[in-house]
Amino acid sequence: MPDAHHRKVSRVQRSRAKTMRREPTDAEKKMWRLLRGSEFAQLKFRRQEPMGPYILDFVCFASKLVIEVDGGQHAESPHDAARDAWLAANGLTIVRYWNHDVLTNPEGVATDLAARLGISL
Asked: Measuring CA to CA, which residue among 74, 50, 46 is closest to residue 61?
């Protein structure tokens, strides 16, 4: 039986998520390499995961953590605020990293994320 979040997702949204997994941005590629690395290997992250009306960049359901990798178009976005509120109401914590930080300071991003997850690097 599929997880509860999958039952609320349309076929169109699943197809869009699949396309997004095939065509990640450079920052998403770099973040995925970080999340698949040995420091975070004990946690299962999914990428471009549909949930409700949204597609999450990265999510670890065991930790109830969503990671969004954002460009400048997301600065003070009302859509993102509504999305974050919906995700929080569904028990998830959202962490946002700027594309620039992921690309130029992956060690800092990994350190911050590890601290949030209670993992020592």
From this structure: 46
